[in-house]
Amino acid sequence: MDRHEVTKKILSAKVKNKMTWAEIAKQIGQSKEWTTAAMLGQMTLNLEQASTARSLFNLTDEETAWLQIVPYKGSLPTAVPTDPLIYRWYEMVNVYGTTIKELIHEEFGDGIMSAIDFSMDIQRQADPKGDRVNVVLSGKFLPYKQY
């Protein structure tokens, strides 16, 4: 048994029971973005959240324990993603990464945007020309120290 097997069981139960991430998130008590990442093995659940997941997905004691262990971060199977949706994100960073970096450094100085003190919001935005995906990423700015 490992965390990947627990993720497979969660996804199987989600499909079998026709659940949505938003419904699951409401039960877990977190955003749909955080909950999805957690159920896919990228976040650590506390005891209460893990107990809720246990009920939702019919998990065993061992499977529930895996949800409470700090995971190995990173979930892509290859360095360059092959899934078209994920590849588009890779492509956006490849094309616009230097622009984002330049503008963040101009506004904030030398540092990075945290992916730990971080939030994400994904919403559907109606548009007569075709609905749009609205993604907001918000991370704390962490300046480099002088030493």
Itemize the secondary structure elements and their pairings:
Blueprint lengths: L2 H14 L4 H8 L3 H8 L7 H11 L3 H6 L17 H25 L2 E15 L6 E12 L4
Antiparallel strand pairs: 1-2
Helix pairs in contact: 2-3
Provide a compact summary of the structure:
This protein has 6 helices and 2 strands, in the order H-H-H-H-H-H-E-E. The chain is an alpha+beta fold.
Key features of this structure:
147 residues; alpha+beta; two-stranded antiparallel sheet; 2 strands; 49% helix
How would you describe the overall organization of this protein?
The protein is 49% helix and 18% strand. Strand 1 (111-125) and strand 2 form a beta hairpin. With 147 residues, the chain is an alpha+beta fold. The longest helix has 25 residues, at 84-108. The protein is built from 6 helices and 2 strands, in the order H-H-H-H-H-H-E-E. It has helices spanning 3-16, 21-28, 32-39, 47-57, 61-66, 84-108, and strands at residues 111-125, 132-143. The chain starts with a helix and ends with a strand. A two-stranded antiparallel ribbon has the order 1-2.
